[in-house]
Amino acid sequence: MSAAAPSAPVAGSTRPGGSARLRRFGAAPSRVTATVVLVVVGLVFAVPLLALVQFTFRQGTDGGLTGAHYAALADPVNRGTYQPVFDGLGASLVIAVITVAIILLVLLPAQLITALRYPRLRRLLEFVCIVPITVPAVVLVVGFVPVYQVVSRVAGSGAWTLAFAIGIISLPFAFRPIAAAITATDMTTLSEAARSLGASWWTVTWRVLLPNLRRGVLAACFLAITVVLGEYTLASFLSRTTFQTALVLVQQTDPYVAAIFSLGALLFGFVLLVAIGRIGRRRTRAGRSRTKESA
Amino acid sequence: MTVTAPAAPASLVATGAAVELQAVEKRYGTHRALAGLSLRVEPGEFLSLLGPSGCGKTTALRALAGLEAVDAGAIRIDGVDVASVPANKRDMGMVFQQYSLFPHMTVRQNVAFGLEMRKVPSSERKSRVVDALDMVHLADFADRFPHQLSGGQQQRVALARALVTRPRVLLLDEPLSALDAKVRVSLREEIRRIQSDLGITTVFVTHDQEEALAVSDRIAVMNAGDVEQIGTPEELYRSPSSAFTADFVGQSNRMRGDLRGGDVFVYGFRVPALDTRVDDGPVLAIVRPEDIAFAAEGVTGTVVSSSFLGSIRRTTVRLDDDTVITVQHEVGDRRTAGQAVAVRLLGAPVAVAPLA
């Protein structure tokens, strides 16, 4: 019998690397076209950001540059002026934590149960989760106002209560990456295999399913955080102070500092998106290097 | 390549359990997937559930594993009804059709998973994992991830993972169907060797009759949610109790005949009928290709094509009444398309079915 001798995986059975790129040669645009497209797209994103950076160093209207606006942030004299921004940032971070909790404790279990137990309800859940993106924020606010009158009576008017509303408008952004991860994983077979090996449902979820959905779940959480940090309409109309409303407030007295904080928020969002891309790629890369060793 | 198979590790030898399904029913809406299925698997036996798609074989296996709840009936392991016991408490090892290794765990972690669930001490766990991987010849692959293994290697790891816990019953749900032909043959032989060495009761689901005939102690041919016939591979092949079994197990020709007093008259040849429940009159006789031979005189026809199959040759002949049959014969007897031939029945007993 031939099965006795262990052998390295057949080259064709491993994941394609460079050879796949070569095969795409005929279908890909030329190098010049690709470069032009990338440069134009890069400029669309880079020019406003560079302008924003330049603005934070601008000295009045004479065109000179200065670091004074950054230094002013640390000056105790300005504490009263900038305090709303720090308060708003703190409130936004609390809202972000609660929003992520809503994603992890409500949306994720709902998607898991739907995928494993009630696959026919997947379309319905998807529809419910996607609906908020089709409704303008101003229209949503109209619906939220009477709801928040009750919320204020029950839970007070703290900024953290805004997390319930933002949790809803985060659903479309959080649903997609989790759904993609679920689709890419044969959850039914994995959970049945784990069950047949003696695992409880809790163990199946914690030890088998979640590690394979890690990338999608983290992406959902990061996107929810970026939604929180970018949300203005709900906070403004529901009279809660968040990072964005505080920025608008401070911008009226010191536009330079408002620009510095906006830049910081953008960089934070950028870092989160890079992190999403990196997570999950780590294991693939480790796997590839091991495959090379065995070849 | 000839390889001396290692003896089964003592740490994995299990005591085969008796499995019994009694009047098991399962419905999906209006569809009756299991229609009062009853069968018994003896301790240490290798039983295959064989049948076409939708006959209920996978449902029966999943019901046995606890992955499908049954609507009625009893499922007994060593006499104890486990129909209401959840899958994780049934103590059965299962290998699935799809690759089911946990992608984020190494081979070693995959195999150790079931032992962790049973809270086996770490030192014993390590030695049993090594034994299990040795058994499937993959000890050198312990630190690899599933995506670094070929399909055949993944299924061997899945087999080691299913057996390392010393389950009472091993369930195999078409574990070879995703593999290429050569790997299928070598892996099925390996599964059979391991099963014999360990003495574990095994239920194997397949739609591939060749696979079932090659490895099973007994085969249960399933049709419409129930067992059509159960017996050894030889019994099913030589003495099918129905036209369905005769048609499904092995290759066969359907030829018109006339049943009279337990014998069938096919093109003037008299052969005994296997199924005595069919009434006398016009019938379809299910005749094996090896029970027909070329002859100087007999039923005449024209050769359509001829296939070389290694040790034998099969030739398709269109008879003068347009019935197309297959004749199995020696490799040296070459027939060419268009050649006029005559065939005769050798007289082996045949299965019969009422003419619709």
Structure explained in plain terms:
The complex is a heterodimer of chains A (295) and B (356). Chain A has 13 helices and two strands, in the order H-H-E-E-H-H-H-H-H-H-H-H-H-H-H. Chain A is mainly alpha-helical. Chain A folds into two domains: 27-62; 84-280, MetI-like fold (Orthogonal Bundle). Chain A has a two-stranded antiparallel sheet. In chain A, helix 4 packs antiparallel against helix 9 (201-230) and helix 9 (201-230) packs antiparallel against helix 12 (255-278). The two termini of chain A are 23 Å apart. The model of chain A is unreliable at 1-20 and 286-295 (pLDDT under 50). By secondary structure, chain B is α+β, with helices and mostly antiparallel strands. Chain B folds into two domains: 10-238, P-loop containing nucleotide triphosphate hydrolases (Rossmann fold), CATH 3.40.50.300; 251-354, Nucleic acid-binding proteins (OB fold (Dihydrolipoamide Acetyltransferase, E2P), Beta Barrel), CATH 2.40.50. Chain B is built from eight helices and 19 strands. Chain B has helices at 57-65, 107-117, 122-135, 151-163, 181-198, 209-215, 233-238, 243-248, and strands spanning 19-28, 31-41, 46-50, 72-77, 80-81, 92-95, 169-173, 201-206, 218-223, 226-231, 253-260, 263-266, 269-272, 281-287, 292-308, 313-319, 324-329, 340-345, 351-354. Chain B has a six-stranded mixed beta sheet with strand order 6-7-8-3-9-10, with helices on both faces. In chain B, strands 13-12-11-14-19 form a five-stranded antiparallel beta sheet. In chain B, strand 7, helix 5 (181-198) and strand 8 (201-206) form a beta-alpha-beta unit. In chain B, helix 2 packs across helix 3 (122-135), helix 2 (107-117) packs parallel to helix 4 and helix 3 crosses helix 4 (151-163). The longest helix of chain B has 18 residues, at 181-198. The interface between A and B is large, with 34 and 53 residues.
